[in-house]
Design a protein that fits this description.
Pfam families: Mannitol_dh (PF01232), Mannitol_dh_C (PF08125). Keywords: Oxidoreductase. This protein is α/β, with parallel strands linked by helices and 491 residues long. The protein has two domains: 280 residues, 3-Layer(aba) Sandwich (Rossmann fold); 200 residues, Orthogonal Bundle (N-(1-d-carboxylethyl)-l-norvaline Dehydrogenase, domain 2). Helix content is 46%, strand content 10%. The protein has 21 helices and eleven strands. Helix 5 packs across helix 7 and helix 10 crosses helix 16. The longest helix is centred in the middle third of the chain and has 25 residues. 50% of the residues are buried.
Length: 491
Amino acid sequence: MLLSNATLDAVPKDVLRPTYDRSRITPGIVHIGLGNFHRAHQSWYLHRLMQQGEAMDWGIIGAGVRPGDDAQRQRLAAQDYLTTLIELDPKGRSAEIVGAMIGFVPVQEDNAALIARMADPAIRIVSLTVTEGGYYIDPVTKAFNADHPDMRHDAAHPDHPRTAFGAMISALGKRRDAGLGPFTGQSCDNLQGNGAILRQTLVSLARMSDPQLADWIEKNCTFPNSMVDCIVPATGPKELELVRTFGIEDAAPVTHENYRQWVIEDKFCAGRPDWDKVGATFTDDVYSFEAMKIRILNGGHQLIADAGEILSVEFISGCMNHPLIGAYFRKTVTTEIAPHVADVPGTTAQAYAGLISQRFSNPEIVDTVRRVAFDGSSRQTGFILPSLRDALAKGAAMQGLALSQAIWARMCEGTREDGTTIQPNDPIWAQLNKAAQAARSNPQVWLNQRDLYGELADNIPFQRAFVRWLKLIWSDGLEATLRSYLQGQNK
């Protein structure tokens, strides 16, 4: 059965579907970067509100700024923007069709259609999932990178921007000039203080071309910080076949784990849906929730994904079942990361670490190490190095964290231990690969990437640990090195 509005009544009875009249939905949100995560997370929360007969004026309009986004637009348009979500619970799989999305802006080089849609006063929230590395910030200082070619282009051509941020600024300028008021900018990416970072990028870019507009944005727009959490693998042939087992032909299904969390700062200048009625948490202390999730879950992902690449372990659950990689994850997270993470209402850092171990071990989640290892230059610096800095400052255990950087350096050399090639997997892969190859004989070359490590490159305890681990990986192999760490052989 081809998925569409016309076929919803024919969906098998065991598949949940929209009970609301989708023709009554009007747009309220533009979401830029419409991939799997958004459809399994933010869109699901809104869909569940609509199931209760609420939020019908908050429909989602998808958007993208890359040429490749048009393929996603065409896939979703052909099925009336419906998505089948498949929950991968070890106790049994289930499916639900979500219908909160009602359109997708045409993908254009100058983003004219996107700007026009965001300038519409009906749009009160513009949300984004553009990856951790997509905000044009320095990975060490977190300062805005005004010298990036994209930012220079958008500053010079504010009416024909190439980035999402330039398009948002142009739309806000049109709204200001027409007296229509601002919208809320809502980052849904895994960044500590993601709302504050989005504000910094927008205001800084606007100031390069229109200081008065920058002041207006800073004064009138809101940028709530948030923490988002749900493991959502990429869609491939297995997922396309899986959705057919439910009797549905869906060109863009999404699989996800049986866990979601969304913690949001309640700062919305133009209103918001009542997401808290379907499980989201509004709080003034997003930071603590962010820190716990980013350091333990996202940091934990980085601990194991690169090791899996080197040892030819394809999936995250396989890494957790590997006797050395799984043990490395558990020891490093519980002894070197969790001790520097504050507890939050409802759970402790150590209990959360145990939960993440269970979630990563879910055999139903076919999440590849390649997906998780992607963009290490953003993820290692954002998810692992903050814990390392805390450990060094306190003189605490940090051998496992230092080892993670040696593993990353070994992975970026570009070959697995079985001799197969690791394909480029980072926006700055050429730089990383060159440094990793040189580090095989001179490990300090890797740390001398100041754009990644900053002052950590000069930290003697970290230097010594990193050098030792990288040399051991190259001389004895990764499994022997992991065994050495687990046995406490750190000198």
